[in-house]
Known about the structure:
Layout: H1 4-57, E1 80-85, H2 95-109, E2 117-122, H3 124-131, E3 136-141, H4 154-165, E4 171-181, E5 184-193, H5 197-205, H6 219-228, H7 239-314
Parallel strand pairs: 1-2, 1-4, 2-3
Antiparallel strand pairs: 4-5
Amino acid sequence: MPSLRTIKSKIRSVTKTHQVTKAMEAVSAAKMRKAQVAALVARPYAETAFKILARISNSIDLSQHPLMQKKGGEGKNTRVLLVVISSDRGLAGGLNSSLFKHAQRELKKRGILEENTGIVAIGRKGEDYFTHRGYIIEEKIVSFGDKSITSNFSDVVRLVTDLFMRDVYDECAVVYTNFLSTFEQKPAMRALLPLSIDAFREMIEGIPPVRGKFAEGDMHAKLDKNIAHASDYLFEPSAEAVFDTLIPRLLAIELHHAFLESKASEHSARMVAMRNASDKAEEVEFSLTREYNKARQSAITREMSEIIGGIEAMK
């Protein structure tokens, strides 16, 4: 049996770990709520941009735009660019590993080879994972932090559209973790290019979480109603010019939303992981305390036996 000093040292160590995990749990919970609010605050801007896109679609044939046309690559020959949004730090359970495995499963399902897959990694975890597995790393970006804005993604949009327009890649998609609720986060891969109106609509409708304080069940109907009544408008200088200006903003909105979803998921997963760690620390602390009490009682009993034996020997 370990000595009393050893057991007491372990108890102190576990107690300090418990204090750290409880603090990290509280911080992650606060950050998760802020990330959810940030996503909801950005929704009206995204919805308005979508309405403008719908109005433009009544004036010009959007299918002829280079960023909305499908490329010729098929099967193994398809070249795909993935914008992977991951965290910079760990201690978030299986959040990042689930995201990376989901991306690889989707690529494998379509038979896309690693040498035909480019990666724009936003976050150190994604950069480390795909670098060591032979993927083409087009860009490495340290996470923007919790206070991000849509304009932070302008450079990423320029890089993605440039690679797509130069036919370096046939498709572009964003890979991120979708926030469903505090205890449920789901990896997702959403198409960015060629640009799809339906995909953008799906992104906007998915901003409110499925459950929880910020869930809003009537937003889908409002969006569909507004789009259904879109009319033909007169644009100045032209509908084409407005559309060319709108596209980078739309893509930046999509990336920003995916980033906010990933942040909310990261903080939620870390909060749950730290809560589990705190619960485990309490169990270990209780077990060690009981072991310490047993060892202390055994030591006291042994000392008493020695004293009584000594007294009996002196008689």
